[in-house]
Amino acid sequence: MKPNTSRRVERHALVAHGFQIIGWRERVALPELGVDLIRAKIDTGALTSALHVEDLAYFERNGRRWVRFHPPGPDGRPLAKPAEARLRDSREVRSSSGQVERRCVIATPFVIGAEMFRAEVTLTDRTDMVYNMLVGRSAMRIGKLIVDPTRSWMAGSPRLEPQASESP
């Protein structure tokens, strides 16, 4: 069997088991946060996903801690309308440069291609980074994502419309 044929068979087997093959960078939507499109780096070196936010503020609602912030829009500038999410946790995270930072953790739906899944994301300042979002290993596991590091933008634009099987 030729190497290319073997890779094709392997890809078909992964897809048949519900996995989505994606590139090292993809377009992602975070619908609960009002983010219809963000370009993200798929980072197998990061456990938890990270999202660039501005104007992060804590508040309480019904006795629970929440956060309010401005996530980036498709052009990278902060969205005019702030997003709100229940604070799930606060964790120390070591950046790729070795710095330890305490970050807010929220859980929110991710949409990559036609797949939607809920995963944790930390909120941080990624001003100097090329991508406003990193998708980490825990989200990849939950979303059943397999990375092809030789490809980009494989999933296409996030499709937010409900699939036929999801309609009532």
Automatic annotation (TrEMBL):
<dbReference type="GO" id="GO:0006508">
    <property type="term" value="P:proteolysis"/>
</dbReference>
<dbReference type="InterPro" id="IPR021109">
    <property type="entry name" value="Peptidase_aspartic_dom_sf"/>
</dbReference>
<feature type="domain" description="Retropepsin-like aspartic endopeptidase">
    <location>
        <begin position="21"/>
        <end position="155"/>
    </location>
</feature>
<dbReference type="InterPro" id="IPR008503">
    <property type="entry name" value="Asp_endopeptidase"/>
</dbReference>
<keyword id="KW-0378">Hydrolase</keyword>
<feature type="compositionally biased region" description="Basic and acidic residues">
    <location>
        <begin position="83"/>
        <end position="94"/>
    </location>
</feature>
<feature type="region of interest" description="Disordered">
    <location>
        <begin position="71"/>
        <end position="94"/>
    </location>
</feature>
<protein>
    <submittedName>
        <fullName>ATP-dependent zinc protease</fullName>
    </submittedName>
</protein>
<keyword id="KW-0645">Protease</keyword>
<dbReference type="Pfam" id="PF05618">
    <property type="entry name" value="Zn_protease"/>
</dbReference>
<dbReference type="GO" id="GO:0008233">
    <property type="term" value="F:peptidase activity"/>
</dbReference>
